[in-house]
Design goal:
The strands form 2 sheets. The chain has a 4-stranded mixed β-sheet, with no helix packed on it. Strands 3-8-7-5 form a 4-stranded mixed β-sheet, with no helix packed on it. It has 128 residues and is an alpha/beta fold. The protein contains 1 helix and 8 strands.
Length: 128
């Protein structure tokens, strides 16, 4: 039995030496991640206009075609976002309501609050 144990230990020792001297597997460096290509179809940011103190803040914003404007109603009094040419209308917005509109074509879009016509704003849509 003693011979068997010594033979087993010798075999394990030789196996350890063989493993230690074998070359480590080669690992190629991972390729660097390349940034995703930017296209015109990329998601565009939303521009926020606050309605507060009986004013649109800011009263003029400039965006690109396809971008969206989000109006957030912060006043206690109801307001609307109504295009001067009636091409869009938010309807009644109460406090904490929000309304979004996507502008597809270049141009200047004037708007008012239907209840308070002295509240005026403008969205300028410019091609990039």
């Amino acid at each position: 039995m003693r011979t068997f144990v010594l033979s087993l230990l010798a075999a394990l020792a030789l196996g350890s030496v063989a493993v230690a001297q074998s070359p480590a597997p080669s690992t190629a460096p991972a390729p660097a991640a390349s940034p995703a290509p930017t296209t015109s179809a990329a998601v565009k940011s939303v521009v926020v206009v606050h309605i507060k103190n009986f004013a649109f803040v800011p009263d003029t914003v400039t965006i690109e075609p396809g971008q969206t404007v989000r109006w957030v109603q912060d006043d206690d009094t109801p307001h609307t976002v109504t295009a001067s040419n009636k091409s869009f209308d938010s309807g009644n917005l109460n406090k904490k309501d929000a309304w979004t509109y996507a502008f597809a074509k270049p141009g200047t879009y004037a708007y008012v609050c239907a209840y308070h016509p002295y509240m005026k704003g403008k969205v300028i849509v410019k091609a990039p």
